[in-house]
């Protein structure tokens, strides 16, 4: 990104929505381009070089998934953040978009203020080179990979993973701002627990927006893991409004947190990619 206005490309076939978003983001200080067809969107991304794409999935020619695939496969557009804007709500639809490489996903009808915050956060991640998470301020991306590479294959280091579950369902029910508040609160809870058990040089970062990894000595692993599990289990229901707590306690998609550990990095793990594969395997 340059010092000029950030550019947003909106690919949306609903003319009323496209016009509304165009006017709204121009007032917010962005340079905005709008197209109504998927093929036009691919061409515009290649020629106008936007800083971010807001992409509807249901388009009159090729769908948004195909647009995203083409953008990700072209070196000129591969790194542009993509936010899907769609009526599709199924988990499988979200996963398909994220597997293609979308950065975020928002369903219609949407809160334009929420979309503005998502756009801001996505552009902030780009400007920071994905080094810190815009919500928690914790390391992510290259900084986490660098730390993992430093300790893999060595004695004296273990990994503790914290997986937040059903954040998408919480976000859909209570909004983007509330879900960010949850993420910040949980990150502070982890940091404060580390201060009690760990050393100052121990490491905490994001492997994804809702997945944390801690690097610490094996001797501290059991104590920290136990404290975190207890505190997270006790805290989750309090993120819900009082009127919803009893009902959500019975739901399968309520907020939750799971932990798992890799006690030895000398024999069990040989690469950063293997660490991420272990995370994915434990999330299934």
CATH class of the largest domain: Alpha Beta
> Would you give the CATH topology of the largest domain?
Alpha-Beta Plaits
Measured as a percent range, the helix fraction is: 40-55%
CATH superfamily of the largest domain: Reverse transcriptase/Diguanylate cyclase domain
Total number of strands: 9
Structural class: alpha/beta
Gyration radius (Cα, Å) is 20 Å
How many separate domains? 2
Low-pLDDT stretches? none
**Average pLDDT metric:** 88
Distance between the termini: 36 Å
Could you state the order of secondary-structure elements as H and E?
EHEHEHEHEHHEHHEEHHEH
Approximately what portion of the residues adopt beta-strand conformation? 15-25%
Strand arrangement within the widest β-sheet reads: 2-1-3-4-5
Which architecture name of the largest domain does CATH use?
A: 2-Layer Sandwich
Largest sheet: 5 strands, parallel
Number of helices: 11
Characterize the overall form: globular
Can you offer a commentary on this structure?
The chain has 284 residues and is an alpha/beta fold. The chain folds into two domains: 7-127, Rossmann fold (3-Layer(aba) Sandwich), CATH 3.40.50.2300; 142-283, Alpha-Beta Plaits, CATH 3.30.70.270. The protein contains eleven helices and nine strands. It has a five-stranded parallel beta sheet with strand order 2-1-3-4-5, sandwiched between helices. It has a four-stranded antiparallel beta sheet with strand order 7-8-6-9, sandwiched between helices. Helix 4 links the parallel strand 4 and strand 5. Helix 2 (38-48) packs parallel to helix 3 (64-73), helix 7 crosses helix 8 and helix 8 packs antiparallel against helix 9. It is globular. The chain starts with 6 loop residues before the first strand and ends with a helix. The model has no long low-confidence stretch (mean pLDDT 88).
